[in-house]
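hey so i finally got around to running the thing on that chain from the lab meeting. sorry it took forever, my laptop kept dying and i had to restart like 3 times. anyway pasting the input first so we r on the same page abt which one it is
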Amino acid sequence: MRVMRYFVESYGCTMNRGEGERLAREMDALGHERVLSEADADIIILNTCTVVDATEKKMIRRMGELGKAEKDVIVSGCMAKVQAARIGVRLPDAMILPPDEYGLFPGKAESAFGRMSPLQRGYGIQEILPIAQGCLGRCTYCITKLARGRLISRSEDEIISDFKNMIESGTKEIFLTAQDTACYGRDLGSDLPGLLRRMLEFEGEYRIRLGMTNPDALDPVLDGILECMEDPRMYRFLHIPLQSGSNRILRKMGRNYTVTRFMGIVNRARERFPDISISTDMITGFPGETDEDHRKSAALIRKLKADTVNITRFSARPGTEAATMEGQVAGGISKDRSADLTRIKMTVEDEGNHLMVGKKVRALVSEKGKPGTVIARTDNYRPVGIAGDLPLGIFIPIEITGSSPTHLLGRQINMSNQC
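ok and heres what got predicted. didnt touch it at all, straight out
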């Protein structure tokens, strides 16, 4: 046995990327060396996503490429659970590791690749902290539910231990993630606000960002979350997927809320924090969607005035109820509706970002941008591009100098000029 070099390749959601890092740390604990390119690796950890058909096809192509590379391959993520047979055809010798078997990975990896002297690796400026697997929803279109199953929350003590290690290592931005962060703890008799309060007991200057929160799960815990957001170390940001502006389509989707309830949640959050950043998701072309349903979604985007709207065309996923529903929308119609919603949302986002120009705010420099630039995040998680080679992990006063539909532009200002 020898030290093996491994490369992690994660696709899809933040949760998937966080779990890819978890697998990497377990390889480190076995004494194997992480490398930054596939070419340098003996082992490829392919952390898959299958949320839409286009992504699944990309995964299949990637497996074909890896099959020719003559390397050891570990396939994890959602495809490892719901499409293991497709993986086996292209990578017959791969280790297939579905999410519900991640706890078995250290033993499997040791058997396959051996154990050496453990390697210690610190945490970065940004880190992802998964807090639960699965969800409580029954969405008729969601293959992720088939892959991840019912809600299984990690214990508070286990999460807090990871959080403590991150803070003590100098991490400044921590993403809490799950399929639905709002339902965290329901299976344990606890809840998300309680977890957040324990996290905020740790001293230091850092930022916590919540992952996606479904409206029906968010509603009962919203007030507690907003109380936690009084602490400036919580980003004033909520990702609340709406999916459709039509109550009829929401019922067909299996979403347990109405448009009115969704807007009530948003309005409560904005009453508490007028500058809170709202992100949402919309699916267009769902089976049975009519022109009138589409117009309702378009009108809702205008009314909501979210900071970010992610538009996705419906993709029938194998094994889901929606895949066999009557009234499948033709691809051309779905494409046109997606383009229409995208035009509207770009206008709304552009108008919202333009209102920020001239404001002076404090922001965390969290990642590299285009060459010669960095990206900083305001206290409500708005991205600001800044020219210059600033170090990551510092908090700086900035002035917003420009805007586009997708981001803001800014410059660092003197401390005496900060707001």
